[in-house]
Structures are given as structure tokens and as C-alpha cells.
Amino acid sequence: MGNLPSEFFVNVDIKRCTGCLRCSLECPxxxxxxxxxxxxKSGDGKEKRKNYIIRYHENCTACQRCVYTCPExxxxxxxxxxxxxxxxxxxxxxxxxxxxxxxxxxxxLSSMGNEKPYRVLFDHLVLDACQxxxxxxxxxxxxxxxxxxxxxxxxxxxFNSDIPPNLKLDTPIMFAHMSYGAISLEAHKSLSxxxxxxGTFMGTGEGGLHKDLYPFSDHIIVQxxxxxxxxxxxxxxxxxxxxxxxxxxxxxxxxxxxxGMKINEAISQTRMIPIGTDAISPAPHHDIYSIEDLSRLIxxxxxxxxxxxxxxxxxxxxxxxAPIATGVIRAGADAVVVDGFTxxxxxxxxxxxxxxxxxxxxxxxxxxxxxxxEGIRHWGSIIASGSIRNSGDIAKAIALGADAVYTGTGxxxxxxCTVCKQCYTGKCPWGIATQDPKLRKRLNPEKGAIAAxxxxxxxxxxxxxxxxxxxxxxxxxxxxxxxxxxxVGLTQAELDVLGVLPAGK
Length: 505
Prior knowledge:
Alpha-Beta Plaits; 2 domains
């Protein structure tokens, strides 16, 4: 059996090429390969060097690194799908996946979120607007409040009793948990600095917290997953909050795997595992097999941090997210994080990513409704995660019931990511999802922090504009206010789950 045909074709205007070799130096996937020995044999001058760059189109991932960095701007990448005989069941991707597994005998890995052509429910929801009787508000001239508090709220105002610990956010947008090891230290530095600049928080993921990030710990949420990597007393107490990861939207029901090739000395020290060994997180927490077990862990963490830090619990969005979230909140969690099936990941089995879980929109609406029905909505906050793409998604998520949102892939795109879906290879050409020292130098943490900060700033400005159009001056007034949402092109069943009316009613 021959090799699979290339999916992309790299076009180069060879007449304008100067032979600078920038493309071969920048590409980590060996698409542009300089045949140095052949050039030496030729005896030609430097201007002929371009003739000895061989392009292996089958290696191209469309990461755009060569396109962005070519000084002459003469490179374009063309998608070149192969023509297969059409069949209603055996689609091109299905055939190619079978061919890959026939060659490798292994699991097909993937990065980023679900690639199946499901409808994005956010795109079928529209927000109400005020006009005459209820006039809009001008956010440029009137104060707009985005401040958000995450955590358990007191049953009543009592100045003599202790107030449960809450996180104070200047904007309801946080950077999602992405572990050190899965992404570079430079990426972590960028996001932690940006979080501090914008008065919000960054999640560490399950890879511990590098010492260089301790100065930003007042804007960091640490995570505890089944592998317990990097978890120790200082780690728990230095952060502002703790999150227990039970499930992940991109791979519900399975654990994590960071290959040994990514475990260098710094990651080894941070995660507290030997250099070069695989970091494998089990599917379950082996000390959690019931809500009671979860409750014991929650209160153990609260005890270890002297009840000064809120404890969150992260679950994947599944059909019974509502009763699970209710149990989590009743178990003592200060917030429940619900991660939808379009959420990103550095590495996941493709079959898991594309076939397990439910959309974040449906999960958030059902969780919020269930907590309200049981009269415990104030016991804990709801954080939505899973392909939050823009401020419109944020506003709709909050109207469906979320208190705040996480953005992961959006944050990485602000750092330069082009979603080439090669995170698991460790060859990220933008220095984000890699531990290669040469590639990591491509990401400047200072510039990355400004870019990520600008993203949050821009989305926050737009949120204020949306609130103004809705006639609201506080994000709190939008939270769970599904009366301000209408569905377009949704089935009645979908409208019922989301708790919204169709447009025109």
C-alpha cells in the first residue's frame, strides 16, 4: 500500500524567491527541506540556492508558519482534497481514517475540539434589544458593571458570620486550564501576565505550577486531576482557587497522557515525575467513586487551605450534567465548571473527541435550571467552557445561566495559534504547544501577554455594548435571563432544553 496523498499543496512563486531559506528554517514538519549537500556539489552561487529546496507537500499541516514568515510573501497553501467515489456512508474522511489505522494499528490522535459538522447552538440564538419603552443604555456615557464573583453566596446578609471565599473578577472571562507540558512555559507566562493585567484568572491545568509563575499566583487557579501531578501544600496555598478536574469536554470519561518526550527537567520538577517518563492520568480518580468521596476531597482541600480558597469541580458536558452538577454543589463545591464537547485539547483519541459529550449550550441551560428548581443556585457558581469564540458567545452563555466562561483555544489563537491540530506532536511552529527550546523562543511572553490581554479587553468592551443594547448596566442582570434570548432555526426540542422561545414570540 502506498502513502496517502497530500491534503495540502504548497505554492511558491519561484521566480520571486530569493533563496533566503527562511521557509526551511521555520517549518518544524519538514515541508521545505534544503538539500545542502546538493547545493555544495553544484558549485553555484547563493542565488541558485532556491533550486535546492525540496517541498514535501504530504508533510504540510497548513499551520501557515511559512506563509507568515516569508519575507517576500510568495507562499500560499492550497487545500487539495483527493476525489473518492461518493458514498452516503463511506465518506472521504472515514476512508482515510481506516487507511491510517491499517498502516499504524493504533489509535488516531487529534487536537482541538470536535470536528463533526454539528450545529453550533450559539449561532442559532439571538439576543433581545431595547428601543422605546425600555430604552437602550449608552455604555460610553454610563457606567457598565462586568464585575463577577465566583463562589458560594451567603444565605442572608449577616455581618457577624464568615462570608464564603469568592473570586473577584473584573470581567467574566478567564483563561482555561491548559497544563504546563501540553503548552510551553512561555505560553503560561503570557496568559498569567494577561490575567493579572485584566483582573481575571488563568487555570494551570493538571501539570503543576512552575516557580516562575508564583508572582502571578493571585490570578491563578490551580488544578488537581487524577494523576495528582505537581500537587503539594505550597501549590495549593499559593493559588487563589483550586479546581478538581473530574472530566473534560474533549475527552469525557478518559484520562490524560503527556508523552515522555515532553518531560524535560523543568517539567519533571514541576510535575514531580522522572525525566522522560510518560505522565498518564487515570480515567477515574481512584479515591472518588461517589459524591461522598468527592465531598471528602473538597473539604480536605478546604481544610488544607484553611477555608480561604474556593474549590471548583470540573465536569464534562453529558446528558445528565444537571444531576451531576447538583451533586457537586451539594458536596461542597463553590462552583461547577461544565466543559462542552467542542472544547479544545492538546491530545485526545479522535473517536472520543468526536463522539462523546453534548454541546455546552444545552448543558449550561440544564444545569442552571436544575439548581434553580432545587433552590440552591446561590450555593455555587457555574462556569462555561468549550469553544467560546467571541463576546456574543459569552453573552449568550451567561444568559443561559453561566456566571463566567473559560476560553482556551481563543487564548491560544491570540498568541499566534492557527489551529493546525498538531499539538500532540510537540512541533508547534508558534512555540505554544511544544517543549522544543528552539520553537519556544518564537513566543515572546511579553508580547503574548499584551495580545491575550487585548483579547480580553476587546471582548469586555463588546460585552458592555451588548449590555447597553439590552438596556442593562450590569452583567448580573443578564445571568440566567433566558427571556432575553430567542432561537432561530432550532427544533422545539432544542428550544425546550435551552429554555428559550423562538424568534417572533
